[in-house]
Structures are given as C-alpha cells and as structure tokens.
Amino acid sequence: MPLDEANMRDPAAAFLDLRPSDAQVEKYYGLGTWRDGTPLDDLRRWREESPESVAVIAHRADSGIRRITYREYAEYVERFAGALHELGVRVGDVVAVQLPNWWQMNALVLACARIGAVVAPMVMTIRERELERVLARLRARVCVTADRWEGFDHSAALAELAPRLPELRHRVVLGASVGDDEVDFVRHFQEAPWEPGRPDAPAEAGPDPDRAFLVLFTSGTSGEPKAALHTLNTLYASSRDFAAVDRVGTHDRLFTSAAVTHYVGIQTCILIPLLGGAAGVLMDVWEPEAAAALAAEAGVTYVHAVPLYFGGLLTVVQDQHRALPALRAALTGATTIPGDLVALGRSLLDLPIRAVFGTTEIGLGTMTRPDDPFDRAAHSIGRPFPGTELDLRADHEITLEQPARLFVRGGAVCLATLGRDSGALIVTGEHDDGWYDTGDLAVPEEDGGVRLAGRAGDRIGGVLMIPVSDVESALRTHPAVDDVALVGYPDDTGSERACAVVVADPASAPPTLADLRHHLDALKMTEWYQPSRLELVRQLPRNSIGKVQKELLRRWVRGEGDLPEERKVDQDRGR
After folding, report:
1. Is pLDDT at 221 greater than 50 in this prediction?
2. pTM of the model
C-alpha cells in the first residue's frame, strides 16, 4: 500500500505508525528471538563492567589505527545524540548517512537509536541520481557525508541536490573541507562538550525495539529499488544467533570486508560485538596486505568477507607466510563459494570456511556450522537459525535441475519494504502469513539445510544487486538504443556483472559500450550499476505475451546456448 499523503508530509509519523503484529510480538518474544532491551543497554553494560576494554579498532588508510574503549564509545554516542538533537532531529526523523568505514559511523548509528531517530545508511558508491531519490523519498532531515572520498566530492554533490530537497535541514560534512553553509562534523559532534547527566542532554527516547529504526535501500533487482525497514529487534534476531553459534565474548575481535553502511557491516562491527563485549574492527580501504596486517595486529578472531576479498586475504597469508593465530571463525557468502577457496582456508588456517546466506530484507538467515564437514560451504548455505523458517515452493518435484523458490519467515525479516520511487509500503507480516520471497532458487538437504541453485528473475550482482529495471530505463533514453535487456554473466571473481543486450535504432549507428557508459555517466548513474559488456541483436526474444525471455539471453551471453540466426547481427559483438 502507498504511504498516505499525511504521512508523506510527516515522515516521522509514517515510521512511528509501523509496528509488528500482535501475533508476531507474541511469537518472537516467546521464542526469545526478540527482547525488551536495545543495543544501548548492551553498551551501558560494558561501559560499567569493562570501561577500558576496546570496543572499536578502526584503520584509516591515511592515518593508521585508532582504538576506542567502551567508556569513550558511550561518551561519543551521547555527544552525537546531543548534536543531532541540537540540529532538530526528533523521534522518527530520518538521518541519512554516507560515510566510509570510519569509527564515527558506529557511534552515529547508536546515537540515532539513543534519540529515537531513523538511520538510513548509504554505501559510498551511490551517486547523485540515486542519492537524490533516496533523500527525497525519506524526507531526510539531516544528511551526514564525507567531504571527498576516493576522488569524488560528496559534499559538493549533496550541495548541488539540496535546493531540490526542501525537507533537508542540515548537511553535515566529516572531513578537512567544510563549507560555511555546512555543519562541521568534528566541531559539532566530536568536540561537543560532554558531561554525564548534563541538563541540556536530549531526553531518552525510551526503549522501543519494535519501532522502525534502520532503513537500508537495496539496489532493486527486477523492478523498482526498495528499502528494507528494520527494527532493533529484527536486527537483534540475527545478531543473537551469530553471537550464540560463535560464542562471541570479550576476547573477540570481529572484522568484515563489508561497508558499515551495509547490513553485514552493521551486524558484524556494531551489533554482534555489543552482545558479547567484543570489538568491531573497521578498515576504510580494503587492501589485502593491509587487511592481513590489521587482522594480525588487532588479534582478529572472526572474519566475514565476500569470496573475492577473503581469497585475497588468504593469498597474502600464503605468499607472506603470515600467521593469524587468533582467528577461529571465517565466514563468506553473497555468491557461490569456490571449492578451491574452501580448500585453501583449510590448508592455511585449519579452519572450515563457513557459508552464510542472507539479504537486506531477511537478515542473516542460514549458516553452515563450526562442526560441519570442511567442504560443506562449497555447496551449501547451511541450516536456518532458531526462529527462522524456510519454505521451498514448487509445483513440481524439486531437484537441482528443477529447484524451488525460497521463502523465509522469522524474527529477522524486515518489518516492511518501501518503494524508492512509488512509495509503496508492504508490511511483511500482513502478506502471505509473513513469508518473504527471496527471489532465490534452492533445493533441500537432508539435515534441514539448503543448497542454492540460482536466482529467480533477472537478479544481477554479488554483495550488492544491480537495479535492472532502472538501468534498462536509462539505457532506453540513448538515441541509438531501440530496445535493451540487461542480463548477468559471471566474472572471474565469482560475482556477476551486467551485459546490455541492445537492439540498435535502425536510423542510428550502433552504439558502443563506451557510448552507453558515457550516457549513463551523464545521467549521474552509479558506476557499478552500469553494463561492462555489450551485445547487439536484431530483436530481443519475447514470449507470447511480449515479455523478454531473459533466460535465453542469459544462456547465450554465458556461452551456454544460442539465439535464432534471425535475431543476431552480422558484426562483431560489442565489448
């Protein structure tokens, strides 16, 4: 259902009105999947019990390592909460954040919880076109960003958008270059006076772990990009299970290659450490040698990295004979895990490389266990956590050749999804008895585990998915493009990239890949959304109702099938 006009004028009301059903509350509190407390309670516990223990270890490529204790961590959360309050942020207001893996991100997320704000993290690769749509949809009151990052001027891009965003009250910039009309993060947040119990401190919003708290936009797979709206309790459901399986405690150091603006990064470096009094380890620029050195120096015990990054880390360990003696758990996922990566992990670390499966919408739902066979991660995503249910649906016998569609239900599934462009709000508990369609295809295993067999529809990507419909729509605005379909093909990292299959306008010269990418750059489309390959055809294959038969195109692009001759062009394929 679309958000009503009154709520769109008052975004706080829209998010405050969202609640899980009474049946969900009874079920998941009864199972212990949800709780009355919040991460702020966890933070206060460790501030009192072990104030000088390290809570965050943050590596910046330009300045080295900084360690923050639980005492400092709690103080920064209070300072940042006060700074947000002074900027007019109140319960239910949206704070958008686009920062690298800097320690300030951790404290800022918790500060939003402290005052009851809704936090909307965004990865650093999002550019103006998508950024404006997200900020406009959420009616964000405050946006926090870096000045420059990896050659891109984020603060200038935000400044250019600001006049078209009437709800945006403040642009907060963390960096060396801050304009007169921008809020200096260091001065206003980090250096703000702080005294325990100061009279001007914002009032505690009150523990409400079932209110919408975190908004994470997915790229969109087929159709409109959407946001997953999570509560502190849907986030807790995943965190508690991971912490329990790996017995996370005060001795642990948790490290991930994921951005802390991504679901995995928030879980691994903020929420799971807080449950056990452990430390989250951050790295703002992932480089294999530096990552291996940081893991060794920080005494990392737990690594969660996508196969490409984990493979690079293992290569450094192998080539440099570097030891990671503290490491006791290594997880990967997001794409198929190569068997040779699993074997290398065993030979170098004497650890099983464990597979994990999840999405922004369902959280972290399944995982291979520490006592599983060493090679299981090469073919399985493991078993669901307690409180998470799987449903494999098919109208035929389920086999690897004919897999079923995977649905998930549980306490970690998001409260709702929100269409970026339409504003369509779908409350998950109100549809299909709470079952969420992952869009993945799978087959069951004997012990209740699952093996993935591919993706339904036309999903493209790895850790982050490419918004297929959005890119196709933009490509169709190119004057030399008559028709287009975007399909995925595997690259040499085990992930997927996008191929544009194009029917050229007969009145124009056929476009090149460079032409298409230049066109998308001019539209300020995020770079990694853009196709990295071009195939030209006379016609797109369509079924009887006019729908493009993308599976035919996908097999052709991957070299696994062919197209009818009448659909091909008599020229070299574009690259």
Report:
1. no
2. 0.85
pLDDT in tens, 488-516: 998 876 678 899 999 999 999 999 999 99
CATH fold of 468-567 reads: GMP Synthetase; Chain A, domain 3 (3.30.300)
**Angle between helical axes of 103-115 and 39-49 (0-180°, round to 10):** 120
* Distance set, CA 550 to CA 271, 389, 495, 559 (Å): 39, 31, 19, 14
The Cα 534–Cα 525 span in angstroms is 17
Short-list 467, 524, 477, CA closest to 502? 477
Strand order in the sheet with 404-410: 388-393, 404-410, 436-444, 450-455
Domain boundaries along the sequence of the chain: 5-449, 468-567
Contact 309, 337 (CB under 8 A): no
Distances (CA, A) of 512 to 100, 501, 515, 517, 519: 34, 11, 5, 9, 11
Pick the CATH number of 5-449 from 3.40.50.12780, 3.30.110.10, 3.40.50.300, 3.40.50.1820: 3.40.50.12780
For residues 229 and 251, give the distance between their C-alpha atoms in angstroms, rounded to a whole number: 32
Q: What confidence tens digit (pLDDT) does each residue in 312-345 have?
A: 999 999 999 888 999 999 998 866 677 888 889 9
- Give the whole-angstrom CA distance, residue 350 versus residue 369: 15
Per-residue pLDDT, 423: 84
Give the Cα separation of 560 and 440 in Å (integer). Answer: 21
pLDDT classification of 199: cutoffs 50, 70, 90: low
Q: Nearest 5 degrees, angle CA 220-CA 222-CA 223?
A: 75
Mean pLDDT of the region 303-309 = 88
Which residue, 223, 452, 243, is CA-closest to 359?
A: 452
Mean pLDDT of 50-72: 97
